[in-house]
UniProtKB/TrEMBL annotation:
It holds the Pfam family CRISPR_Cas2. This is CRISPR-associated endoribonuclease Cas2. It comes from Enterococcus columbae DSM 7374 = ATCC 51263. Its EC number is 3.1.-.-. CRISPR (clustered regularly interspaced short palindromic repeat), is an adaptive immune system that provides protection against mobile genetic elements (viruses, transposable elements and conjugative plasmids). CRISPR clusters contain sequences complementary to antecedent mobile elements and target invading nucleic acids. CRISPR clusters are transcribed and processed into CRISPR RNA (crRNA). Functions as a ssRNA-specific endoribonuclease. Involved in the integration of spacer DNA into the CRISPR cassette.
Length: 101
């Protein structure tokens, strides 16, 4: 399963910029990878792990702005279409148990 986090946070004041940075740092430390600006994704093994991740995001959410979560299966995630450009990353984000480098 994948958890997608979409967020749109205000950055007008110093406090809002600090909240934005802290939320983004939390996502990265928690294992999320950036798909696009303000769109992050994390792979989880099952629904109970997904619920735990959702609770962590709720606990670390900023006060202002919009934060949305979407949980999809690997099959649904793999059907994502790229209209312009292509997905490239140096981060291994596969559900395989054995990765040979």
């Amino acid at each position: 399963m994948r958890i997608l986090v979409f967020f749109d946070l205000p950055v007008l004041s110093l406090d809002q910029r600090r909240d934005y940075r802290n939320f983004r740092k939390f996502l990265i430390k928690d294992g999320f990878i950036m798909l696009q600006e303000s769109v992050y994704c994390k792979m989880v093994l099952n629904e109970s792990a997904a619920k735990a991740v959702v609770e962590q995001v709720k606990k670390n959410r900023p006060e202002d702005g919009l934060v949305q979560l979407l949980t999809v299966t690997e099959k649904q995630f793999s059907k994502m279409e790229y209209i312009v450009g292509e997905y490239s990353t140096e981060v291994l984000d596969t559900d395989q148990r054995l990765v040979i480098l």
